[in-house]
TrEMBL record:
SUPFAM superfamilies assigned to the protein according to its UniProt record, in alphabetical order: OsmC-like (SSF82784)
UniProt GO BP: response to oxidative stress
Pfam family, one: OsmC
PANTHER family the UniProt entry points to: ORGANIC HYDROPEROXIDE RESISTANCE PROTEIN-LIKE (PTHR33797:SF2)
Biological source species: Streptomyces brasiliensis
InterPro entries according to UniProt: KH_dom-like_a/b (IPR015946), OHR (IPR019953), OsmC/Ohr_fam (IPR003718), OsmC/Ohrsf (IPR036102)
Top-level lineage group: Bacteria
Name listed for the protein in its UniProt record: Organic hydroperoxide resistance protein
Recorded family membership: Belongs to the OsmC/Ohr family.
Length: 139
């Protein structure tokens, strides 16, 4: 089910100049970074790239979702980390991304950790946004 405009709690606004070889900044000035294509894609690699920004957002969002499902399950996820690896490559439509989410949850057993990660994947807004059009692997 889609979010309706009346249900929006917060909106982030960012503007890019010159695409992958320029800069991107938020309207509130909290984020202002030089972007450049990675060397693997023929760029200088001097700045950050959109995949790094996506990985940062996805990992933070997923960590938040993990906290939500852990509280519901009364599981201890303190000290946990979530890493998102975002790859870009060619597909039948031009380019697409692939994501691997890795979570380390030191205070629960492996089965509980796996269940929490799978539950977090169901509630994370980034996971919902990519579902059906991006391969996401949970580790």
């Amino acid at each position: 089910m889609a979010v309706q405009q009346s249900d929006v709690l917060y909106t982030a606004v960012a503007t890019a100049e010159n695409g992958r070889d320029g800069r991107v900044a938020t309207d509130d000035g909290r984020l202002d970074v030089v972007v450049s294509p990675p060397e693997e894609m023929g760029g200088s690699g001097a700045g950050t790239d959109p995949e790094q920004l996506f990985a940062a957002g996805y990992s933070a969002c997923f960590q938040g979702a993990l906290g939500v499902v852990a509280r519901q399950a009364k599981a201890d996820v303190s000290g946990s980390t979530v890493t998102a690896k975002v790859g870009i490559g060619k597909n039948e439509d031009g380019f697409g991304i692939i994501v691997e989410i890795s979570a380390v949850i030191p205070n629960v057993d492996a089965d509980t950790a796996r269940a929490l990660v799978e539950q977090a994947h169901q509630v994370c807004p980034y996971s919902k946004a990519t579902r059906g059009n991006t391969t996401v692997t949970l580790v």
